[in-house]
Design a protein that fits this description.
Length: 306
Amino acid sequence: MVSPHHLLKIATALSAVALTASVAVTPTYALQDIAIEDAVAQSGSVTADNGVVVQSDGQTGDQQSQDSMPDNPNAKLPGTVSDEISDDATVVSEDLAVTPEGEVKNIETGETVTDATLVGTQDQQPDPLAKTNGESFIPVSAEDVKNAVADANVQLSKFEGNEYGAHWGTYNNTKAFFDYQNNLFVQQAKGVIDVSEWQGDIDWAKAKADGVEGVIIRLGYGWGNNADKKAQRNISECKRFGIPFGIYWYSYADTPSIAKEEGAGVVAKLKRFGVRASDLAYPVYYDLEKWTWKGHQPPTDPNVYN
């Protein structure tokens, strides 16, 4: 059995077609698949544009742990930073930030803190060490903490690198994917895999825990064929675990009539598996590739797909 964290495919569609009951097909290009092995990050390091050096052992260039606060290696980094915390706020403890106006807020919830032991009263100053339970803490800007949280979230993904040198990183403080030469491949990226019966019975709980953020499930191919043998299971499991998913159909169409048959097959199988439009976080992708089929030739002119 091969689970998806052993085979990650980054599927990039230059144009995708959402098939409906009427099957209105517009020009499209094939999904470009890049097989990404779930290997340990390559030796050495990769420097992202924000200056954080990502190494295979999960440490940054200054050896500070990815899950610790900037300038405070013994303080735990929050999981998130509330939008209520502005970049110019000052983080004064593991869970508190002070706004430029002097308000104390919870870092993760953004709620204003009213506890007198932390903010005092009009007649009594608070003990300044109460915010950190007596531990030392070097104040740091909220912007730096936000950047650290973004970097840590990227590093938590198990899809860090592969034998081809492609890798995850950050660009403009957003999750991004880079090629083997460290050129930006896609910004604001998500770890989305495509799967079929060839991956067997996938452990979807483990896949989600390992960082899978979305799935494109093969429903089938051509026309007059059965559905992908694992399509029903993959759809049901993604629903059960709340993993966003979409569908793809591999096309063998070389005439309008065959394309119509394929479209009808997609609609029929989606209905059979109980898939509604509201279930799909991603579209139904029409996968056009240069196929091999005895007695047939794939179109050489993209205009044929009009």
